[in-house]
Amino acid sequence: MAPTTRPKDAADTTDAAVPAGSIKSAERVLQILDLVARHTDGIDASGIRASLKLPRSSLHGLLRVLSDRGYLFVDPDSRVYRVGLHAWEVGQAYSHNQNISVLIGPEMRALRDELNETVQLAVLDGLDNVYLAKEESDHPLRLVSGVGLRLPAHTTALGKVLLAGLPAGEVRRRLAGVTLQRFTKSTIGDKAELLRRLAAVRASGFAEDDGEYTVGLYCVAVPVRSESGAVVAAVSCSTPSARAGATGDRAQRYLPALRACAGRLAPLIAPLS
């Protein structure tokens, strides 16, 4: 008698997001964690399945394991998933168990005090900039960013500095098949334009963002480099566009302090990268 076979879920046949040679279940776990981490208000199982195109049976099993192990928290009433406590604990072991905030906090606070503006530090992950540190100014300005969060790199000054630190060919590879999302009328939505802007960033050594992710917000960023010259992070200053002043050379108000801080941060950041 021929063995009975279970019909495949349609999503089982096309796992385009899983690289060849990888372990499918491990890739799916990481995809789920990445997706849930981006939804700070939570996302339910249907939303996860729709976003990742995972088989229903596999997804429910993975969500159960992640929840049981504390990597995800599921709200008993709304049934939405959020990042769990154990995932946070694992994240605290980042960078060889060194506490980044202890290492760089004094320099970031000194920069904030010197400029009296909000300052941030980020690294690149794929096409996103991930925030490692943020020091708020006394001004009533609250940014979307926060430690551990990520934003599309093409929309921020920090992100453009980090992308510009890559070889142009690597940037093109990462952009292949990607649609640049627009958040405001100033957001770069064209790949050719982004590549031109990145070339200008490489030439000038800094990047600007004027309302490209948040309307009315101006930001300028510079690279933090290792001894070899590789860009390992970026540091920025953010202020309301009106307070930044007229376009043109307004970045010069912030660049000396940013570059000095980047130089002091380099020996602290480079060993962690």
Question: Which overall shape is indicated by the principal axes computed on the Cα atoms?
Answer: globular
Which runs of at least 5 residues are low in confidence (pLDDT < 50)? Answer: 1-18
Name of the CATH first level of the largest domain? Alpha Beta
Largest sheet: 6 strands, antiparallel
**CATH architecture field of the largest domain:** 2-Layer Sandwich
* C-alpha Rg (nearest Å): 21 Å
Tell me the strand percentage band. Answer: 15-25%
Distance between the termini: 58 Å
What structural keywords apply?
single chain, 9 strands, 19% strand, six-stranded antiparallel β-sheet, Arc Repressor Mutant, subunit A, 273 residues, Beta-Lactamase, globular, alpha+beta, 10 helices, disordered N terminus, three-stranded antiparallel β-sheet
Structure, described:
This protein has 2 domains: 12-89, Winged helix-like DNA-binding domain superfamily/Winged helix DNA-binding domain (Arc Repressor Mutant, subunit A, Orthogonal Bundle), CATH 1.10.10.10; 95-272, 2-Layer Sandwich (Beta-Lactamase), CATH 3.30.450. The protein is built from 10 helices and 9 strands. It has helices at residues 24-38, 45-52, 56-68, 85-91, 100-115, 157-164, 168-175, 191-204, 241-244, 255-269; strands at residues 43-44, 72-74, 80-83, 118-125, 128-135, 150-152, 207-210, 217-225, 231-240. Helix 1 crosses helix 3 (56-68), helix 5 (100-115) packs antiparallel against helix 10 and helix 6 packs across helix 8. The model is unreliable at 1-18 (pLDDT under 50). Keywords: DNA-binding, Transcription, Transcription regulation. This is IclR family transcriptional regulator. Residues 86-271 form the IclR-ED domain. Residues 23-85 form the HTH iclR-type domain.
